[in-house]
């Protein structure tokens, strides 16, 4: 979309006030980002989910800051007119504020991101304040936080009892007070996600959080079923099955090469007779 203009955090807040849902998708490289921008996506998240869907890890924990800078830079090159958020990877924002800001600086200066995302609630709010004070927009992330999966007992739905619901509400309000421009709610019960969305002035972006958040985010590879084997997820809707198309396309390529059906006459380049004469002495000797 050549005439597309990137959103900013002021426009996002107005979209919440006007009841216009935000659309977000992950992307990890130039072609994915370019296609997402051409499709009209509002926000691209360069998620540390790249560890699972691109780098082949079982969790997001091994993803490094170097990984995030590299992939963010690739995404930015593909989507010049889209607001791009980069994940702060595991343990890069829980130490000193100086260490956290060094990571933020790399994602903004080297990766060219427009904002960073951090997982957690009250315990990281002071860091969020410091990052925002340095002039960097911050997207919060509560509910199921993959970087903390080992301490929250696995991939469990959040907000299923009153105490947990109150915890999530308190975390969302604390992130808003700390200056976050929006907050992702992951695997949160629909009722709690709706209550949080009504209680705070910044946009909520849901993933497995029901119908009443201010926006939705999904992983690129889930939207397009771009994986093998693909693991079904209840909160995901598949819009295209490119994984099967890719496998079938490569299978056909392999078969045609084995059968010498590719390349055929339409894929080759002919030399004139003078070239053949220089190689074989006469054109007739080179003819097969």
Automatic annotation (TrEMBL):
CC annotations in GO: cytoplasm
The organism of origin for this protein: Paenibacillus agri
Cited SUPFAM superfamilies: Phosphoenolpyruvate/pyruvate domain
Binding of Mg(2+), residues: 48, 87, 119
Top-level class of the enzyme under EC nomenclature: transferase
Protein name: 3-methyl-2-oxobutanoate hydroxymethyltransferase
Entry keyword annotation includes Magnesium: yes
This protein's pathway: Cofactor biosynthesis; (R)-pantothenate biosynthesis; (R)-pantoate from 3-methyl-2-oxobutanoate: step 1/2
